Amino acid sequence: MAKQAKTVTITINGTPLEVEEGTLLVDAASRADVEIPTLCYHEDLSPRGICGICLVKVNGEYVRSCITRVREGMEVVTSDPVIRETRRKILELILATHPDDCLKCIKHGKCELQDLAERLEVRSIPYDKYERGLPVDRTSPSIVRDMNKCIGCGRCIEVCHHVQSVGAIFFHNRGSHTIVANAAGQTMGTSVCVACGQCVVYCPVGALYEKEAVERVWEALADPEKVVVAQIAPAVRVALGEEFGMKPGELVIGKIYAALRRLGVDYVFDTNFSADLTIMEEGTEFLHRLEKGERLPLITSCSPGWIKFAETYYPDLLPHLSTCKSPQQMMGAVVKTYFAQAKGIPPSRIVSLSIMPCTAKKFEAQREEMRDSGFWDVDIVLTTRELARMIRQAGIRFDQLKEEPADPVLSSYSGAGTIFGATGGVMEAALRTAYEIKTGKSLPKVEFAQVRGVKGVKEAVIELNGTQIRVAVAHGLSNARKVLDRVREAKERGEPLPYHFIEVMACPGGCVGGGGQPLPSPLKKREERLMGLYAEDSALPVRKSHENPEVRALYEHFLKEPNGELPHTLLHTHYEPRDPYRLRKNPLREQVSTPE
Amino acid sequence: MNHARFILEFAVDRDAFDMEAYISRGGFMGLRQALARPPAKVIAEVKSSGLRGRGGAGFPTGVKWESVQRHKEPYVVANADEGEPGTFKDRYIMEHAPYLLIEGMTIAGYAVGARRGFIYIRGEYPAIAKGLIKAVEDARKHHFLGEKILGTDYSFDISLRMGGGSYVVGDETALLNSLMGNRGYPMMKPPYPTEEGLWGHPTLVNNVETLAYVPAVFTKGASWFTQIGPEHSPGLKLFCVSGDVHAPGLYELPMGVPLHELLEAAGGVKGRLKAVQIGGTAGPVYDDRALSFPLDYDSLRAEGGALGSGAVVVMNHTRNMAEFLEVTTRFFSEESCGQCFPCRYGTRQLEFMARNIMMGKGKEEYLDEMREIVTTMSVASFCPFGKSVALPVGNVLDLFGDEIRTFIAHQRYVKEAG
User: Fold this and answer.
1) Fold for domain B236-316?
2) Are residues A66 and A180 part of one domain?
3) Catalytic (active-site) positions of A
4) In a shared domain, residues A320 and A289
5) Residues B146-159, buried b or exposed e (16+ Cβ, 10 A)?
6) What is the predicted pLDDT for the residue at A545?
């Protein structure tokens, strides 16, 4: 039984307010409709009290409202001359070191520092400007880190260490020389960074951003020799609308197809199709392993941030990972083989473009293993945000677009494919198919509610032809650690394995919360996107991957059977353990450039 | 001079690690006395002695000991991260009377029910750390440390930890962070370390000098203590005098000694006294008005300052206050932990302006801007370090503003007439 929460009475600017004891002052104030300005504070992360912007007066003393918890009888003043002046001074001090290049900044219009300067009416900076001349780290295939723009609020570190438990970045140096950097002289490209991009999501300024590929796409589209083939990931369809004033969770897939055609894309396919294809391969793989009782638990492999995390921190568990490529890569492989042959287009002329909610997908696409057909599965990866920029550049009124269908052959999808974008979705999709293949019976109810929702670790037991299948779903890598440590411990002690099947997605909420999604992307917005995916699933006529007609045709005409020889060549891969702190000389390190 | 001494009594032997000599001067008598009574009684005696923390804050030592929650394996930590410029008293104790520290720590450990203690010593004191390790080993050999100390049921041992070299780690919460292997960032209080410190255990953090005076409470008695110095800041204190005096060095004098007496003890000022900084770099700067100040916690607090570590830096008429400003702000900029914005950015900007002044590129507006920055820092900094920057910088601007304005106008230092 949960203890009845105790409430206390405080006054905020003279108005009495009853709140639960221990609530943070900044949250309590918002319940009294007072929005205290903040900078380093973020509702999803544990507060550190770094910036001092959220200063308020409590019983005559100035305190930070993001780290002060309410106590009975507090008299809180949220605005007085000292508070306003102090907040503005702090901003002025930050701005004295911050580049004045808002117009050219990727975060222009979405920058919390910019918003605050406007809100607190900073009209001039009295101090002399000093440039820090720090390097811009472009060594990661996914993320650029410009330390000149970094204000050192520590949110990226907080999310990297405590939400993701990756530990790629740290505060370095002391005092006014404090900067954020990778450990042991590494760079974003050489460090343990898994490219999940959560640091990008939580960065309030333009210090962290995706490595843009928009110009490469324009080039390909303008090249008459090239055939541009696009795919759109599940989570993009419930988020892109946010960039155009629509609600999170609103399904805009038909508009995306239309927009891509307006941009000049030659063939519009859908990653949901290859998500169904993944289920065919992975579900079959699971049933095989279950039959033989080997390499269990099977762990999903769709999330490239998770893959690098496993290679770095759980190399001993790599044999448990599904050998299936992710839907992005499967689609790419099929485009450059099956589709290319069917249309008679040489694969060398095809530009395989994917629109992903994810920054790590950029990293995945350029992994050496990802060209089994002799060509790169995927040539260019755009994030949801980058596609929005292209649409805006082209002057397309996205919200007014009429919905269009995708192109045939590689775009039909089931509800199982669409929920791939949600935490628990891959598991649910796999269970729908595995159940029917294994039992030969039709599922009475396709929803597996136990694996839905935003709880960090979800567990369930599913009965499959008399066998109790124990499954676990983790999202956010610190939650993945909890599940994996249990597996590791059980293996070391020779105990029975705690699970048969585990789904891991690197980002909290799953792909809907990916590092490439529209900003801001707080957890509550991710939940709305999740609801959008589940709504589409329940509205679709086909809800199981093995019933997808185009997937069936693909097997019939090309792949033959799941886990067969051709699928193994094209659609499966392998993983290599990584040395987390390789200290040997790395050529990537030389590429850290100075500001242009 | 003819006054009571305690720590310096033990510092007369040529070999500081000579256990026999230490014992012959009454060493480890305090520990014997303390172990002979129940811990509550030990705490009561420290309380009645009126001993206050010699690290700077002046918190009553006995009260702190009493607040250590005993139920969950407390730790005792000696704060030997002596980073305050002009301060060398802890170093002196550890070099010349290391057993005093060990004895004091062991008594503290017994009083609060700890089984383990740490000496957190600053990274710049490697040779002293080596000596301390030897002293700890010797004490263990003689059963003043380790299992069943002096045949009683009490067991306690001490380990050494080297700091990474940060000034802010002198703050007890930052020190604990550093001791646990984290960055030396100050932590939110509450919870206080006495409730939740090292790895969640209640932790008593005392300064080296505080611990070194603890044996005196038991060998000389609490009343001996209260007889010396002012009523609310009793006992002796180590003062570190540096700068423009004839005999800079360490002086053990009663609390509340007027500054002019301390300076006389240190051979008197060379030339004319221009400015004096009391309590460390984060303490205020005074002009010759300070000569009459009694040097104790409450008197200096009344003057808007603090006794701090007991450092006294003397500047005579030849000193350039713009240079003092530059050195001080650079120190803050280097030694801020960098955690919070007002301090991280404020010290950087202060240093930038002070350096510009020194390079002949100063502007008249700097004086107002500096004042605004230190005001912001004093309101909004996370820990006492950032808040205290307002003291020296603000005082220099108050007292020597004209001199700095003249420097800016002439783009160089203009010597005072006479």
Assistant:
1) Ubiquitin-like (UB roll) (3.10.20)
2) no
3) 282, 285, 302, 322, 361, 364, 369, 511
4) yes
5) beebeeeebebbbe
6) 95
Domain ends where: A158, A185, A211?
A211
The identity of residue A228, as a single letter, is: V
Tell which of A211, A238, A269 closes a domain: A211
Cis peptide before A99 (omega within 30 of 0): no
**Tens digit of each residue's pLDDT (9 = 90 or more) over A226-263:** 999 999 999 999 999 999 999 999 999 999 999 999 99
CATH architecture observed for domain B321-417: Up-down Bundle (1.20)
Q: Are both A182 and A308 inside the same structural domain? A: no
Q: Work out how many domains chain A is built from and give that number.
A: 3
Q: Are residues A108 and A231 in the same domain?
A: no
**What is the pLDDT at residue A593?**
44
Burial of A579 (0-12, 13-18, 19+ CB in 10 A): exposed
Which residues in chain A are closer than 8 Å to B382, comparing Cβ atoms?
49-50, 52, 64
pTM of the model: 0.91
Residues A548 and A414 in one domain: yes
Phi, psi at residue A188, to the nearest 5°? -60, -35
| pLDDT band per the 50, 70, 90 thresholds, residue A586 | very low
Identity of the amino acid at B15? D
**Does B348 lie at the interface with A, CB-CB under 8 angstroms?**
yes
| Longest CA–CA separation in chain A, Å | 78
Domain of A548, CATH number, reads: 3.40.950.10
Q: Is B113 left (phi over 0), alpha (psi -120 to 50) or beta?
A: left
Q: Do B349 and A127 touch (CB under 8 A)?
A: yes
Q: Tell me, what's the pLDDT at A63?
A: 95
Among A82, A85, A176, select the one facing B333 at the smallest CB separation.
A176
- Nearest chain B residue to A89 by CA distance is B376
The average confidence (pLDDT) of chain A is 93
Residues A148-163, mean pLDDT to the nearest whole number: 96
Contacting residues of A for B166, CB less than 8 Å apart: 174
> What pLDDT shows up at residue A590?
47
Which chain B residues are within 8 Å of A82, Cβ to Cβ? 379
Say whether pLDDT at A353 is over 60: yes
Q: Does residue A201 contact residue A107 with C-beta atoms inside 8 Å?
A: no
Query: Do A107 and A72 share a structural domain?
Result: no
Which residues in chain B are classed under CATH 3.10.20.600?
236-316
pLDDT on residue B1: 43
CA geometry: angle at A450 spanning A447 and A451, to 5°? 85
What is the distance between the alpha carbons of residues A247 and A232, in angstroms, rounded to a whole number? 19
Is there a single domain that holds both residue A342 and residue A363? yes
Structural domain range at position A94: 89-211
* pLDDT given for residue B417 in this prediction: 59
Residues B7-227, CATH architecture: 3-Layer(aba) Sandwich (3.40)
ipTM: 0.89
**Does residue A310 belong to any structural domain of this protein?**
yes
Tens digits of residue pLDDT in B261-288: 999 999 999 999 999 999 999 889 999 9
pLDDT per residue as tens digits for the range A55-75: 999 999 999 999 999 999 999
Q: Model confidence at A582, in pLDDT bands (50, 70, 90)?
A: low
